[in-house]
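Give me structure tokens for this 152-residue protein.
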Amino acid sequence: MRHGIIRKFLEFGAHIGHTRSTRRSGMDKYILCLRGSQCIIDPAQAVLRLRLAASFLRGLVCDGKVVLFLCTDLGPSGHVARVANRLGMPAITDRWRGGTLTNFSTLAPRLKAYSPRMNRMPDTLFIVGLRRPPIALRQARKDRVPEVAEVA
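Here you go.
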């Protein structure tokens, strides 16, 4: 089973990371090797981390917690919105409005039009693609909202 997951991981090209000049030093433990200037991500480590994230999110959803899905990249935003809708969770897929988490009580009435299912402060933030919403990540850390991120 494990080898089948890793094989699919490799077939989709999910093992190809950023170039050496754009990678962060904290990612070194997840890098298997370098091919030219391209980082190759260790599929076993990635699958392990994905399983941990899935287990964490599954526990939250089973406990009735709110997971806010955030994706401001045009490509995957439609898929993220469909997944959030299927799970009955709020999703933000167009742009992050500053203060959404830090000033939640003030902005709550306006957020109903922006994300209809967001009627209370989210218990965790699921971010797809970390390049575009750094403000959301800073706000989540400031308010101690746990975040799960998938780097696209």
